[in-house]
Amino acid sequence: MSDATSTRERTLDVVTEVARRLGADRVTTDPETLLKNSSDWSRMSPVLEEKVPRGRYVADAVVRPRTPEEVADVLALAHAADVPVTPRGSGTGNYGQATPFDGGIVLDLRRLDRIEVLEGEGVLAGAGALLSKIDRAARAAGRDIWVFPSTKASTVGGFVAGGSAGTGTIEHGTTTDGFVRALTVAPMDGSGRLLHLRGEDALPYVHAYGVTGIVVEVEVATEPAREWTAVYAAFDSWAAMAHVHRSLLDLPVLPRLASGDEPALVPSLPASVDLDPGRFSLRVIAEASTVAEVERRVADAGGDVVAVLDDYASCDRLSGMSYNHPVLFLQRAHPDRTWFHMETGGEIYWTDPDAVRAVYPGDVHLHLELMGRGPLAMVVADYHDEAGVLAGMEAMETLGMTVHSPHQWYVDRNVDLAVRTARETDPKGLLNPGKLVPDHVVPTRVNVGVR
Ligand SMILES: Cc1cc2nc3c(=O)[nH]c(=O)nc-3n(C[C@H](O)[C@H](O)[C@H](O)COP(=O)(O)OP(=O)(O)OC[C@H]3O[C@@H](n4cnc5c(N)ncnc54)[C@H](O)[C@@H]3O)c2cc1C
């Protein structure tokens, strides 16, 4: 289709047809709703705050389908008219990866919220079902879902397409490690069809920000439900806390989560128990039969057990203080300062955290998580400029650490697979434009890559 008509005009034509076929309630062009649905939590990054501020890229319409088939219909219409489509769940992504860089349609998938606990090992859910509700349904049926993020109010489609790890990761890894048993995906190839993919075939759509297809249904892995207990402990030193943190990997049943924070991060944590702001905080979701052993290890390392809470709500509360959440709480507690964070990993967190602290000038704070392969940490530091952020990244890589920058919006995992898949499933490059950056392969109309 020629550029003779603007994206906005073509979008309005498409959504008029969507409203006629599916119902007027499926479409909105209300300016406030468009603005709200065109940004995410990238405001946690001062780099992204500058590059993709709220209001710079705004959709021309929001479409809210109710069924997988409706998603396929919308995509067929958008494809015919060359209208970009950016999928969206709860909008809790960190990287601006749900920002509609080329305008067009934002596809709000939250109405696809069906949940069915299957016989056997899976739960089948619409892409828009909230992980909190999926977890509740699974627990009621005597099952635990393998993994969920600290943003448990996010959608399963958004977590699979844009997230990666969380509570459950110590044992079950990330979203690419078997959590996704099967997917139903709507491609942007003009066919109006739905693809059913199982096992490895689903991987091109996991953590791909929707550039390879819109996830409409997900089957996630579960296991028999366990009795979980929230254990709060406090230490006088990082070394003592790290010693216990590290030891948790050899418990007979792995914990579901193990988060640690320096004193500077502790006062802003919304814990249900009093936390000493002068001490290092370790919080563990431990399986009931291992709690006494965790308590013993805390005592042996010179720490104190602050609380042991054996109700599931307390475990949820503890989950809500994991991964990126302590960074957010710190930012909220100090609105006068500008912080940025880096997602990093390496045994160095157990052995020589000062080497990491030395990477950035000024105040540097560490939040620790446990993964099956070792520690993961959020490094929070004073923001000066993007060059300083990138220089620190390089220094951490030199230290042998793994580093993921939360200050970029493009697909940066399994990129070749995404590119190969998108050639077939989105030949016009209309899905979430600007997120699959190799522009020699998939054309995008904007060039906003950071590197
Ligand atoms: C404070 C804070 C803490 C966080 N903690 C974690 C954490 O513990 N673990 C973690 O992994 N992440 C975490 N995140 C990131 C984010 O919450 C997760 O990625 C989340 O699961 C995204 O879900 P969502 O429904 O909000 O998706 P959105 O933000 O709406 O979308 C995420 C991405 O997926 C795409 N997308 C959405 N739905 C679909 C679909 N159905 N099909 C195809 N593409 C789609 C979007 O275009 C976007 O690129 C955190 C974010 C914040 C702000």
Q: Give a count of the beta strands, DSSP E runs of length 2 or more.
A: 18
Low-pLDDT runs: 440-451
Query: Averaged pLDDT, please?
Result: 94
CATH class of the domain at 228-309 and 325-404: Alpha Beta
Short description:
The chain is 30% helix and 22% strand.
Write up this protein.
Residues 55-225 form the FAD-binding PCMH-type domain. Keywords: FAD, Flavoprotein. It comes from Nocardioides oceani. It holds the Pfam family FAD_binding_4. With 451 residues, the protein is an alpha+beta fold. 30% of the residues lie in helices and 22% in strands. It contains 16 helices and 18 strands. It has helices at residues 7-22, 31-36, 46-51, 68-80, 131-140, 156-162, 169-172, 175-179, 238-247, 291-300, 312-319, 325-333, 348-351, 353-357, 386-398, 415-425, and strands spanning 27-28, 61-63, 85-88, 105-108, 115-117, 122-126, 143-145, 180-186, 195-198, 214-224, 228-235, 257-261, 280-287, 304-309, 339-345, 364-371, 374-382, 402-404. Helix 1 (7-22) packs antiparallel against helix 4 (68-80). The model is unreliable at 440-451 (pLDDT under 50). Flavin-adenine dinucleotide binds at residues 40-41, 44, 86-94, 97-98, 109, 127, 149-151, 154-155, 157-159, 161-166, 209-210, 214-215, 323-325, 328, 432.
